[in-house]
Amino acid sequence: MAIKMIKLTEEQKDCVKFRTDGELLIRGIPGSGKTTVVLERAIYLSINGEQVTPGPKVLLLTFNKALSTYIKQMVRASRDEVVEAMTFHQWGTQLLRDSGITNYRTISDEKEGFVKFAKNIIRKYGDLILPSAKVHGMSEDRSLIRFLMEEISWIKNNEIKALPQYLDAQRIGRGTQIQLTKAHRETIFDIYEKYQSILKGKRCMDFDDVALQLIDNSERILSNIRPNHVLIDEAQDLTATQLKAIKSLTMKSLTVAADKGQQIYRRGFSWKSVGIDIRGARSKYLGKTFRSTKQIIQLARSLQHHDKQLINDNEFLPLADPDTEGPLPELLISGKTNEELKTMVRKVRQIQAAFPKDNIAIIANSHDRLEEFEESLTEHGIGSIYIKSDEADFLIPGVKLVTFHSSKGLEFDHVIVTGLQEGKLPYRTMAPGDDYEAFIATERKKLYVAMTRAKLTLTLSAVAPISPFIHELDINLYR
């Protein structure tokens, strides 16, 4: 049964009904129907795909919990019981546990503390030869810990196991601010090894370890729990090791949907390098958007035009004008952050009066800011749903509160993008040693992704001093 009464285009049908073995890459611009096609193909595979093991017949993996929850609700609405949907980390940890490889707890917020503990232990027993990693708005010690966290993650995602490998590795994407000497790398690797020892002692692993454990122990994972057909949505933001792990454990077919223009995490890999064969007919392109109006797309394109590295990339997908017309996007400017709360309440009421059965998304940069919006809306008698849990209902009308990162892959009738303030977007503090141009490009993509979630109307809410990204927008394309 189809998920919705949607008439697929010939290009979309070609993706859905593509052969049921091997790999398939679906590249598409925002609103081109990538998620719909992935869902329809999942159901097609559940009916027509071969099941070679007793494991899950069809597994749909996503980048974040919000998109996973949305897809689960869509699958439930289709009454298809064969398709399973979850995030990579949910699937990976479950597979490791079911295989008896490890039942270690996965840490997230505690990582910073563990890295700091490891650094202090190394300092106690020897010289701590580390580069200066000071960044604006952050203490020197905190900056150094942030730098070490990033470097440890890089070591893991490049599958570096020993010091000689690390000493020889070419470090790309770090920029010119921090130059690592041999002594620096030796100290960093000591801290990395101590960090891993601390994790093991506490029976923990971090998110990067999940993919590595799957790769290193793939032979121990029995075929009867391996998935037959795997589909990945928003694959551009997975790491190389995550994609390698998925590829190595997929029994029959792998479908990957991606758009480099929406990549908000920098991942240095090619599809070939992770073992995914997309030659010839195995690579499909969806170039027409069905979500947003022409006015929204034109404004988003004027922003994207400033990302020179992206538009010169061979995987870049240019935005084409859709057929649907709509009002010009609106820019609202508040003098202070508290004024923005009042502005948002007025705007939500205005939209609800005109479109009582539609959904509205308020997109913000942090959970703290969303909680302030939630409180302000409640005070004025406006209900809202905070999209941060598995319980959030995407399929009912109303106001949804969502972060920039969690908005990926989602769509809403009306979108209000908030907090467009200098120091907030782009964020004032980039990762220590990061490449400045790459950092700005990533922050710009966050705004681009948020803008292209809108179907009917788009409102941009800036707070003085306004974000420099506002000045990149074509002044003739908003009111």
UniProtKB/TrEMBL annotation:
Residues given in the record as ATP binding sites: G28, I29, P30, G31, S32, G33, K34, T35
Protein's UniProt keywords contain Hydrolase: yes
Location of the UvrD-like helicase ATP-binding domain: 7-306
Name under which the protein is recorded: DNA 3'-5' helicase
PROSITE patterns, alphabetized: UVRD_HELICASE_ATP_BIND
Keyword Hydrolase included in the entry's annotation: yes
Gene Ontology terms for molecular function: 3'-5' DNA helicase activity; ATP binding; DNA binding; hydrolase activity
Keywords: ATP-binding, Helicase, Hydrolase, Isomerase, Nucleotide-binding
